[in-house]
Design brief:
The chain has about 500 residues and is an alpha+beta fold. The protein has 13 helices and 23 strands. It comes from Seriola lalandi dorsalis.
């Protein structure tokens, strides 16, 4: 069975192993070795699921081994043949699969109960039903679609289309991706060439974190079976049609995305040191291990300037209300997502402004959260600028105070690495989180203060210590206005009010 395959040695170890494999006749029970520590039943089951029914499992955790029983010998043969050509991996570690001498698994009842519970749970997740009444059999419905719907929770770092392509392409050929924001959440539709690949990706990645403790993947099958992609840009891509336009009249330019092209990105990140102190991809349960160094670097880029990587830290905001907008108001709003260094309202086009943040990562984050939000009554558009920096005017030339340098501002939220502020980045919402409230300031004082900024306060709730509170305005636009007006408001006694968007509602 293995003799004819040139890849059998890479998939299954040394020559002596190969000799032994040739001697083991096919069996529906497979012996899996060299599993990483702490591996779960679910991850082992995931290896067998694309090939048919999985009817039993026995984990030998102390030995880093497992036995997996499939419903039929044919399914086991298909699985072994497949993994002879494609090295099987669990948590980014190559594992070894061979036929077992056992023809079926007999497990004691205690072990078996846990295994059967896991098998049932996996089955239920797969077909969306409640666990079957017959615990002895896991009968999987065929995957309904090659298209997955992906929602990303706790998105403290921007997740780009290229990051998704890198992660999901470990499971098969990714043909098309469309990204969008819905209900204040980043979502994506991703189409594989084969529904079985989609099923494997869903089983392995659902509930995993892309980066340490954040960017959690929630994955379902989409009702769509084919995606129609019109443009290749940083929001959508059809990998089968590189000739598609970008949609903005330019030729396709992949530098818009945070990682550039996955292969090219590795070179541009590997030369610059200093990523180690930032987010690292945890091996093991915490974060997804298939991510390459490029994505790790993207996560780390929150604290490191992306010099020369093709992503500018400068944004262009347009369709602004020129009667109302000031450099200070833009500094405060964009400062929720990054440390704003300079703001320039354009002299000949006062409804547009350049905003320079510390790095490209912060710029991506601000753009993904603020583009399309209503500010001062107008829908603001935010795009990446071609400028690398915002130039300051020469002395005495800026008589209209259109440009402001904020590089030394004490109000930067993300100066301290590891600051709690990194964990409290949320899309604009009608509910605001207030902190640093001065002793003696009550609910009525705060309601009055916030209704004076031109909005209606719908609800209010103090936290237990009364130094923090939630306040709900009647719309996201009102909350944006209140944040611009009242963040850093002097409450007296050296207490400056801190305002940010909240994920909670009251």
């Amino acid at each position: 069975m293995y003799g004819s395959s040139p890849n059998s040695m890479t998939a299954n170890g040394s020559d002596s192993k190969k000799q032994r494999l040739d001697e083991s006749p096919p069996s529906r029970v497979l012996h899996i070795r060299k599993l990483p520590n702490e591996v779960s039943e679910t991850e082992v089951i995931a290896l067998g699921l694309p090939f048919g029914k999985v009817t039993n499992i026995l984990m030998l955790k102390g030995k880093n081994q497992a036995f997996l029983e499939l419903g039929t010998e044919e399914a086991a043969i298909t699985m072994v043949n497949y993994y002879t050509a494609v090295t099987p991996q669990v948590r980014n570690t190559p594992v070894f699969i061979q036929y077992s001498n056992h023809k079926e698994l007999k497990t004691d009842s205690a072990l078996n109960q846990r295994a059967q519970a896991v098998l049932q749970a996996v089955s239920a997740v797969q077909d969306g039903s409640s666990p079957s009444s017959d615990p002895g059999v896991l009968d999987l419905a065929p995957p309904p679609s090659p298209v997955l719907r992906i929602i990303i929770d706790n998105m403290f770092y921007p997740v780009t289309l290229d990051v998704l392509q890198q992660i999901f392409s470990k499971f098969g050929t990714v043909m098309k991706i469309i990204t969008f924001t819905k209900n204040n959440q980043f979502q994506a539709l991703l189409q594989f060439s084969d529904p079985v690949n989609a099923q494997q990706a869903k089983l392995s990645l659902d509930g995993q974190n892309i980066y340490n403790s954040c960017c959690t993947l929630r994955i379902d099958f989409s009702k769509l079976v084919n995606l129609n992609v019109k443009y290749n840009n940083d929001k959508s891509r059809d990998y089968t049609r590189p000739d598609l336009p970008t949609g903005d009249g330019e030729a396709t330019n992949k530098d818009h995305s945070l990682l550039g092209t996955p292969s090219g990105a590795l070179a541009s990140y590997s030369s610059g040191g200093g990523y180690s102190s930032s987010l690292s991809l945890s091996q093991g349960g915490g974060a997804i291990s298939p991510l390459s160094a490029a994505a790790a670097a993207a996560a780390a880029a929150g604290r490191v300037a992306l010099s020369g990587s093709g992503v500018s830290g400068v944004l262009l905001a347009s369709n602004l209300n020129e009667e109302m907008v000031t450099p200070q108001s833009l500094f405060t709003l964009f400062g929720v997502y990054g440390d704003v260094q300079r703001v320039k309202i354009l002299y000949n086009k006062k409804d547009s402004a350049l905003i320079q943040l510390s790095d490209g990562n912060q710029a991506q984050l601000a753009m993904s959260h603020l583009n399309g939000q209503k500010v001062f009554g107008k829908v603001m558009r935010v795009t990446l600028s071609k400028h690398q920096t915002v130039a300051l005017p020469r002395e005495g030339l800026d008589d209209q105070l259109l440009t402001k340098d904020f590089s030394g501002s004490p109000l930067h939220r993300f100066k301290k690495p590891g600051s709690k502020n990194f964990q409290n980045i949320f899309p604009p919402s009608a509910t605001l989180h207030l902190s640093n409230i001065r002793d003696g300031v009550g609910e009525d004082d705060l309601r009055l203060l916030f209704s004076n900024s031109g909005g209606t306060v719908k609800a209010f709730k103090f936290f237990q210590d009364r130094k923090m509170a939630l306040i709900q305005m009647s719309s996201v636009e009102e909350a944006i206005q209140a944040l611009m007006d009242l963040h850093n408001y002097d409450m007296g006694g050296n207490h400056h009010l801190k305002v940010s968007f909240s994920k909670s509602t009251i």
